[in-house]
Amino acid sequence: MKSSLSLLQKQSLGLSPQLIQSIRLLQMNIPELNQFVAQELERNPLLEYAKRRDLPRQGKSSTAPGDHRAFEEFVALPETLHDHVASQISFTAFTPHERLIANVLAGHLDDTGWLGASASELAGKLNIPPAEVERVLGILQHLDPPGIFARSLGECLEIQLRQRDRFDPAMAALTANLDVLARRDFRTLKVRCGVDDEDLFDMLQEIRALDPKPGNAFHSGAPECIVPDVWATPSPGGGWQIEPDPNTQPKVLIKHTYLKEVSRRVGKKSKEMTFLNECLQNALWLISSLDQRAKTIVKVSNEIVRQQHAFLEYGVAHLRPLNLKAVADVINMHESTVSRVTSNKYMHTPRGVFELKYFFTVAIASSEGGDAHSAEAVRHRIKAMVAEESFENVLSDDEIADRLKEDGIDLARRTVAKYREAMNVPSSIQRRREKRLWHNGNQGLRAS
């Protein structure tokens, strides 16, 4: 067997650790970015936050990223649901045994105020009869907010109606037939409740005034806020101006004086100098990456605003269809880069704060051969048509599709139904029943 050596030359594409970190940096939102930069400053003695004069914006905090004494830290957190319930349990005349059961029940409350376990299940864990758990549960269901400790929607509504002294046999029948109410089958409801149109109208008004998730009124967890990455403001000379907020974008500098002093005291070939050189390279990379990240976001945002300027000026009805490739081709970037930039990034506009992904919508062909329409704008039109319906004229999906076609929007009936269901808009039959009931109820109120 003969052995030999040979050289083989080939090309391969690899990602360096710093390039991978730069990609991750581009995907981060503002809170994640500030947390990452803070960790880098802890690891790297050559880095410090840039001292700059804050530029306050309307509705925004002017706290610099390096200032840990944020205003929010001085504000007391709102009372949570569990704190509210615990304080009431402590003032309720329970025996020690009952108080133990009450605290166990309170521990199984979810954020909506509903009980997340059955009485038999908790009785088994506590090794006590289920009747004892039911008795304590009945006391807890009188606590504030009304409807708390319910195990179902019907029970939640029943608790609130009992506290209002409005749980009569007709209401009992209504809460027992919530599935019929969800279908808006008012004819069946009238039969089962034994009431006429006017009485059913009054009952439904009372049901609408109840809270199906009483616990949602309380704070749960740490406060969350959306921090815009860029601001879109009208330019004095016309058009729109895009700029990052300097008070939320972290900016760091190298401590040149510190680096010079330490370099003078250590040897050029010492381990300390090697460590300083690594820190210097990491610092230069971080400064460059932060600058490149800000420029990339502004570049993508500028193109989005250029293509969606009609939305900023006139509203959602003028939102144009747009995809990632259309933006990427104009600014000479890869689609994946645009996708990373638009994920979890927000733009503040005169019409509100929007995620950059919001401006990318599916195109719907025009029936007249003109420009395509945005799916979001079409959904907005459908919702507006439904809102303008009268009692005598409720539009079916076919009629909505015909009206859209008259406006130059070619949309199939099944697509109209899909958009309508996605917006939680009932069918034409259900809307007609509801409007007829409201009409008859209002007529009865006027007559009385």
UniProtKB/TrEMBL annotation:
The UniProt keyword set, sorted, is: DNA-binding, DNA-directed RNA polymerase, Nucleotidyltransferase, Sigma factor, Transcription, Transcription regulation, Transferase
Spell out the family assignment given in the record's similarity comment. Answer: Belongs to the sigma-54 factor family.
Q: Which residues form the RNA polymerase sigma factor 54 core-binding domain?
A: 71-258
For this protein, the record's InterPro entries field holds: RNA_pol_sigma_54 (IPR000394), RNA_pol_sigma_54_core-bd (IPR007046), RNA_pol_sigma_54_DNA-bd (IPR007634), RpoN_core-bd_sf (IPR038709)
This chain's function reads: Sigma factors are initiation factors that promote the attachment of RNA polymerase to specific initiation sites and are then released.
Which PANTHER family does this UniProt record tie to the protein?
Answer: RNA POLYMERASE SIGMA-54 FACTOR
Q: Which GO terms describe its cellular component?
A: DNA-directed RNA polymerase complex
Instruction: Name the domain of life.
Output: Bacteria
One Pfam annotation reads Sigma54_DBD
Q: What is the protein name stated in its UniProt record? A: RNA polymerase sigma-54 factor
Q: List this protein's GO terms for biological process.
A: DNA-templated transcription initiation
| Organism in which the protein naturally occurs | Mesorhizobium australicum (strain HAMBI 3006 / LMG 24608 / WSM2073)
Q: Which NCBIfam families match?
A: PRK05932.1-3, rpoN_sigma
One annotated GO molecular function? DNA-binding transcription activator activity
Instruction: Please list the residue ranges annotated as the RNA polymerase sigma factor 54 DNA-binding domain.
Output: 274-433
